[in-house]
Amino acid sequence: MDDMAPTYEERGDGDDPIRLLAIRDTPLSVDEVLGAVGDDAAGGTTLFVGTVRDHDGRPDAAVTGLSYSAHPTAGAELRRVAEKVAADFPVRALAAVHRVGDLRVGDIAVVVAVACPHRGEAFRGEPPADRRPEGPGSDLEAPDLRRRPRGLGRRVGAPIAPTWPRSRGRGPL
């Protein structure tokens, strides 16, 4: 691991709905994240798995991989967003893990799981794209744990030259 990819990990106990938060430089496990949110009182669990794709959404923008780096405060930002989701929704359990380092197409970059008493609540605990905050500090909508936390950077590897995507300023994961 290089100095631009610090790791962070915390695990909660049964009383804390935030069961697992991590930023790692090793491959992520969907089973670990899903297992972390297991709760007998939960009737619905949603799982999001973000992977590296082979394009950047523009014509002729082929991608061969991504390189994620993390600011030392990225873990605290991940915690802040998880706390907001847990406060705003009836979350029984929540886990979010993000990868740093060099990833290839197909690699898992982020895994998020939310367990709630009912399945509809579980889906709302992980808001759809049209409910994402539109700017820094926007509290009008629920935060989205699927987006990168502030402090996690991404460099796109293209066949010809790497580029830095512009920040959308939309907040976490």
Can you give me a brief rundown of this structure?
With 173 residues, the chain is α+β, with helices and mostly antiparallel strands. The protein has 3 helices and 8 strands; from the N terminus they run ββαββαβββαβ.
Tell me what you see in this structure.
- The protein has one domain (8-128, 141-157): Molybdopterin biosynthesis MoaE subunit (Aldehyde Oxidoreductase, domain 3).
- The protein contains three helices and eight strands.
- It has helices spanning 30-36, 74-88, 119-124; strands spanning 8-11, 18-24, 44-51, 65-70, 93-99, 101-104, 108-116, 152-157.
- Strands 1-2-5-7-3 form a five-stranded mixed sheet, sandwiched between helices. It has a three-stranded antiparallel sheet with strand order 6-4-8, with no helix packed on it.
- A hairpin with a 6-residue loop joins strand 1 and strand 2 (18-24).
- Residues 1-5, 126-143 and 158-173 have low confidence and may be disordered.
